[in-house]
Amino acid sequence: MQIERIKFERTGGFAGIRIATDLKLDDLPDEQAHTISELLDDLDFGELPEQMMGNANMPDQFTYTITVETKKWEHTVTTGDTSAPEKMQELLQLLNRLARTQKKQ
Amino acid sequence: MHKRSPINCIVPPHVLRNIATHGTDAQKNLAIETIKGSAQMRGQRQALAEFSVAAFRVAVGGKERVIYDAKHGSSLPGTVVRKEGEAPTADVAVNEAYDGSGYTYDLYNDIYQRNSIDGNGMRLDSTVHYRVGYDNAFWDGEQMVYGDGDENLPEAERLFNRFTIALDVIGHELTHGVTQYEAKLTYSQQPGALNESMSDVFGSLVKQHHLQQTAADADWLIGQGLLTQNVKGVALRSMKAPGTAYDDPVLGKDPQPAHMKDYVNTLNDNGGVHINSGIPNHAFYVIATELGGYAWEKAGQIWYVTLKDKLTANSKFQDCANLTYQTAADLFGVGSVEQQAVQKGWAEVGITVGGTTPPPDTGGGCLEALLRLLGAAPAKQ
Question: I want to staple B221 with a disulfide (CB 3.0 to 4.6 A). Which of A74, B143, B206, B235 is the partner?
């Protein structure tokens, strides 16, 4: 599935500082766009449940909201540090870093 | 027959209690036996009963820490790297987590007579080196978890150091555990901001107690040392002056209010739990400063009893103000300087307690009330 756009937001955490980014894959370097597409495919992102918060009442954890858009569908998933699936860790780490970089610009 | 130990006649009870709490197993047992023995000898039944309960709790679990290493993965708790009584390792984060959880245990145990998070000697588990580039720390319901900050970024881009670097962060996380066992404040909106504020208050008190600082000497910062030199800021929060901890092109500005008129309504961060905590944080700072001396003694005691016995899951700021005001009367008397300080602290953040009339009698003025009833004393205004 051709992914066009990915929106990412991280809120909460000990510092309570929000970071976010809104990426069009066409604007990213090819390699990065490829990596993101692969990670989303591996996760079968479109089929993930919308809410993956587990026990939401967990002090100081981050809340992550990821929205993925393709030509055919748009899907948003909300998850947290200890409730995110292990195979999502690499994606979260990459998006964190992109959000941080974008905020700096 | 109880065999009397040689330390019986020399060592005062409070020292014995310390040994019973902090000594090796053999020392503990000896101290416990001694406490029991001397109490029996003196025929102090009450002392014996109290000491036996305390000694039993100590025997089943005093200060017991275990530090784990997640090795930058996300599975918890990870590999054991240091246990209670073991020598420091070469890993600074491990040692900070060990020492910091120990200092936190000490504040609760020595000052508030609380044996660990659950009040019953619960083992203090901490995991360091959680994930890669994890600029956070949290309490997962059972243990503390610490990231290393931005260790994966080039030095010039790093904003956060490792989270064990600040002792008050460690005290903050452990206090989430205490709150979980006591008031059980819901982690959302005002109850959530109170939950956060309790963690900041006792986190700061752990640091002040360890450094033996008075309210006037303390920095009242949360997360001092956590921000790298790339950030324009001194810490993550300031209880003394909420909203002034950082102002940075990348991180933005510290959003904490210090007054109800600036209360932030937001859906983010569970309804701004790390933002609006600035309001009760500042009230505590004002009260502690007003009372002077060591903040953990009076202000801390009022807050601890309120957290343990009065607050409930859905308590809001006004409830907390009313309950701390009531607790101050219970502990120090109606109209005491302590109770007046509590009233003043909340007033400074825009929350009124006790009204403008004198506080109601809650048992402190029995004689006066009786005399009033008999018409021997003038009625209160």
Answer: B235
